Amino acid sequence: MKVSIRQENNVHGALIVERISERVFPRYSRWDYISVMNYVRLGGKVLVAYEGDTVLGGAFVRRLTDDLYELTLIGVLPEYRGKGVGKRLLAGVIGAVKGDIYLHVEVRNEPAINLYEKFGFRKIKRIPKFYSTGEDAYMMVLKRTPSLPENSGEGEG
Ligand SMILES: CC(C)(COP(=O)(O)OP(=O)(O)OC[C@H]1O[C@@H](n2cnc3c(N)ncnc32)[C@H](O)[C@@H]1OP(=O)(O)O)[C@@H](O)C(=O)NCCC(=O)NCCS
Fold it and tell me: Which domains does the chain have, with CATH numbers?
């Protein structure tokens, strides 16, 4: 499979996110393209995986600050899973933004957790009943900016 990853920070990309959220996350409320576009205008990014003109999957990141982004959605259509598309998409996300990236994932979603850990994301806490389905979530973070020392700003000079 010859996969290409493209940034689509436009209405076309936002419509693809809407479609993926419907097909891949049917149990959750869908992301409508207008909301996605609003986040794109604030510095959010949409990445789409293609084989030729066929959409295989996509990812959507929201910008909170220049140093902090949220990976809001990543999904590969069921028929294309297990072929490295998720890895290509996540690598694309990491390359597209500079700051730390955090996300939430269902604690039983082993494929996604494995994928995130492969790229250096770490579980930082478990949040009970995070999802409307009653499932717990892990919050995971990929840290790329240096943390401030604990006593920063309290120098003696
Ligand atoms: C999670 C998801 C995006 C992975 O996409 P994918 O294209 O199937 O993943 P890849 O083929 O690139 O595999 C990447 C890594 O994920 C992990 N992984 C993928 N499928 C797995 C499975 N069935 N079981 C365990 N680990 C799995 C492995 O660590 C794999 O690396 P490896 O092949 O080197 O072992 C895809 O399963 C998906 O869309 N799931 C539904 C949506 C979802 O849960 N999104 C995340 C919500 S937070």
Answer: 4-103 (3.40.630.30)
